[in-house]
Each structure stands twice: as structure tokens, then as C-alpha cells.
Design goal:
Layout lengths: L3 E12 L2 E12 L3 E5 L6 H9 L6 E6 L2 E2 L5 H6 E4 L11 H11 L5 H12 L14 H13 L5 E5 L7 H16 L3 E5 L3 H7 L2 E4 L4
The chain binds adenosine-5'-triphosphate.
The site of adenosine-5'-triphosphate (ATP) has 10 residues, from helix 1.
Length: 210
Amino acid sequence: MADALLTVRGITRRFGERTVLDAVDLDVVAGEAVGVVGPNGSGKSTLLRCIVGADQPDAGETLLSGQQLDERRAEVRRDLAVVMDDIDFFPDLSVVEHLDLVARAHGQRDAEDLVDAVLDEVGLMQVSGQLPSTLSSGQRRRLALASVFVRPRTLLVLDEPEQRLDVEGVAWLGEKLVAEKAAGRGIVLVSHDPDLVAKVCDRVVRLGDA
Ligand SMILES: Nc1ncnc2c1ncn2[C@@H]1O[C@H](COP(=O)(O)OP(=O)(O)OP(=O)(O)O)[C@@H](O)[C@H]1O
């Protein structure tokens, strides 16, 4: 059995009387992508929030590489790359400065070359000197994705990463995520794009069928 990067057991989340997640299990091993799909309101984002520690489940546990998630530990933060809702950017740091900050804060060697390569890959080179407030919504999404690809990562947790990307952007994202798997990384992908899920995911967990 390959290394278990993520083990989710019995995650249950209730809001008032409503049980949104009822004992959900999910495993991701190295080099594997698991899709999480289901209709609006079925609990996909809630599940991801529980996995990354942004929300507290009523029951169940999440293990990263066999250990409880503790975001205070630098090695845990290094392993886990997350793109959820729009991330907040520093209003006074340019695109390249954001990526440089993320790469250096995570101790990446050759940060400058890495940032250059990712800027090129995500199509932000031309706007690299601009502030986030001057980017289009799709460009801001690309910046959020670029932030993941300039940092170390073992497990990617992505909530609708294709949002607001153009057709070429979604095609690029699919190729990139397949390459991430080939590099031995694990992926949890929430998406409403069936083609992206089919291209990237080895298995699918469906929520909201109860
Ligand atoms: N903090 C909260 N308080 C009350 N209800 C909440 C809270 N967070 C989520 N919910 C409810 O839980 C349900 C699941 O929400 P969630 O955002 O996980 O759905 P989703 O599957 O990601 O939906 P979408 O496809 O629209 O993104 C929704 O009915 C939502 O209203």
C-alpha cells in the first residue's frame, strides 16, 4: 500500500438540526487525486474546511501522513497546500512580490527562478508588477493558484480551483494537476467541472446523495 497522505475518518458536521456531513471517510495516497463532487450545499467546502482545520467537525478525525493536523508545526504547513475561497492578498504587494514572499517564507531555494517559471506558466508575467486590486478576477484566481505552485507541497486541497479561469486556463490546470500526481503528490479536488474531474481524479467521493 502506498503512503497514506490523508486519512479522513467519520467526519460529521452539523449546523443546528441539519447534518451536512454524516461520517464521511476519505483517503488519499501519494500520486493519487480524489474528487469530491455533489450539488450546491451538499457539504463539499465544509468537508475541505474540516480537513484543513478551518472548521471543527462534531465527530471524526483527519490525519496528515498519519499525524493529527497541527498548523502550528512548520512541517505540516509545508506539506499542505490549500486553495479555497478567494484568498486575501496584501493590497500593497505586487503579483511577483506575493509569490516571492510565499516562496521565501517556505524556504524554497532558487526562489527567484521558481517564481519566474510559475509566473510564466500561469500567464501572469505581463502583470507581474501590478497590485492585486488591478487584476481581473481570473488573474486573481491565477495568482492564488500560482501561490500553491511556488511553495513546497505534498498534498493539495483545492476547492473549485477552475473558478473564473478561461478555457485555456482550465486545460492548463488539468495538465498541471496530472503532473502534480506524477510527481508523487496527492490531491483532493472539489469541482463542478466534470471534464476536469475526469481528467485529474482517480476516484470520486459523492456527497449529498442521502
Ligand atoms: N457556518 C455555517 N453555519 C450554518 N450553515 C452552514 C455553515 N457553513 C455551511 N453551512 C451550510 O452547510 C451546507 C453545506 O455548505 P457547503 O458550502 O459545504 O456546500 P458545498 O457543497 O461546498 O456547496 P457549493 O457547491 O455551493 O459550493 C449548506 O447548506 C450551508 O448553508
